[in-house]
Design goal:
143 residues, 2 domains, 6 helices, 3 strands, elongated
Length: 143
């Protein structure tokens, strides 16, 4: 049986696949459909939703606006209405890429030796405290 990870980027996605990819519950996607006319999944017999790659891009932009940039639903609707879907998608993708690059560069930035030594000392103090707590809980240390 083929794994779902091997789907083509142009393949349609089910609501469960999109929900997993976006990190939101399925009912949130259905709610967003009712609030954002820009989300238009294809519906098959029985009402099953199939999202096109374009729908997934719109959903990702809406998720970014609501969850990362702090917009309200009305604010996101206004932004989409005034600037258009393409502009919002491009803007959120650019901001997300810049944000990811900044996070990565901050994580791997070379710290001065004095900061590393200080941090190492703090971590060792925390480890020692945790060890004392562990021993206290096991009854190995007097209270």
């Amino acid at each position: 049986m083929a794994s779902r990870q091997s789907k083509s980027p142009t393949a349609f996605r089910t609501i469960s696949e999109v929900a997993d990819q976006m990190g939101v519950p399925q009912h949130v996607l259905r709610f967003w459909e009712s609030k954002f006319s820009q989300i238009k999944p294809m519906k098959r017999g029985g009402g099953r939703r199939y999202y096109r790659p374009e729908d997934v891009e719109v959903i990702n932009a809406i998720r970014t606006l609501l969850h990362e940039e702090g917009y309200t639903i009305k604010g996101a609707q206004k932004l989409l209405r005034e600037h258009g879907v393409k502009a919002v998608i491009e803007n959120t993708n650019t901001e997300q890429t810049v944000s990811n690059i900044q996070k990565i560069s901050n994580d791997v930035a070379i710290k001065p030796v004095s900061e590393k030594t200080e941090l190492k000392g703090q971590l060792m103090d925390i480890r020692d405290r945790l060890e004392k707590i562990r021993k206290s809980l096991k009854g190995e240390l007097p209270n």
